[in-house]
């Protein structure tokens, strides 16, 4: 027995396929060849330069919360290639740090206590942290 030629295999596959395979290009409809006024307008707009009036419309307006986040997370953001959307002056950065000082101190203490020294805490204290602060690892 010899191998079937490629055309014969394709013929067998097309007979078994439940969906017909289209091999010819669709023919244009001669009844719908007129160009409408809308089509003429769209074709005419192709020669015009690109409209850049809505270039930054997707961007939200700059908010003070974004300034806080970008200032406080600047080092981490730069590691991931993030560039701040607005450069703040040194006095503005100092104002952000001073306004958030209590939260920053609490965050550093919590990080040091719970993440760095969690397993050095007595077991009973760890169980209290799990129970009341819902801390799980």
Tell me the layout of helices and strands.
Layout: H1 6-16, H2 37-45, H3 64-72, H4 74-79, H5 90-99, H6 101-116, H7 123-133
Description:
The protein has helices at 6-16, 37-45, 64-72, 74-79, 90-99, 101-116, 123-133. It has a domain at 64-133. 0% of the residues are buried. By secondary structure, it is an all-alpha fold.
Total of helices: 7
Low-confidence stretches: none
Instruction: Give me the Rg, rounded.
Output: 34 Å
Strand content: under 5%
What is the element string, with H for helices and E for strands? HHHHHHH
Report the average pLDDT across residues.
78
Fraction of residues in helix: 40-55%
Which tags fit this structure?
single chain; about 140 residues; mainly alpha; elongated
Give a concise summary:
It is built from seven helices and no strands. It has helices spanning 6-16, 37-45, 64-72, 74-79, 90-99, 101-116, 123-133.
């Amino acid at each position: 027995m010899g191998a079937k030629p490629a055309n014969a295999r394709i013929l067998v596959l097309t007979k078994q396929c439940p969906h017909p395979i289209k091999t010819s290009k669709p023919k244009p409809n001669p009844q719908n060849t007129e160009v409408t006024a809308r089509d003429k307008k769209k074709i005419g707009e192709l020669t015009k330069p690109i409209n850049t009036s809505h270039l930054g419309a997707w961007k939200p307006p700059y908010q003070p919360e974004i300034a806080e986040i970008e200032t406080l997370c600047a080092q981490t953001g730069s590691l991931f290639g993030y560039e701040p959307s607005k450069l703040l002056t040194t006095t503005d950065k100092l104002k952000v740090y001073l306004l958030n000082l209590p939260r920053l101190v609490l965050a550093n203490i919590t990080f040091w206590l719970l993440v760095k020294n969690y397993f050095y805490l007595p077991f009973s204290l760890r169980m209290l942290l799990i129970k009341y602060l819902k801390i799980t690892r």
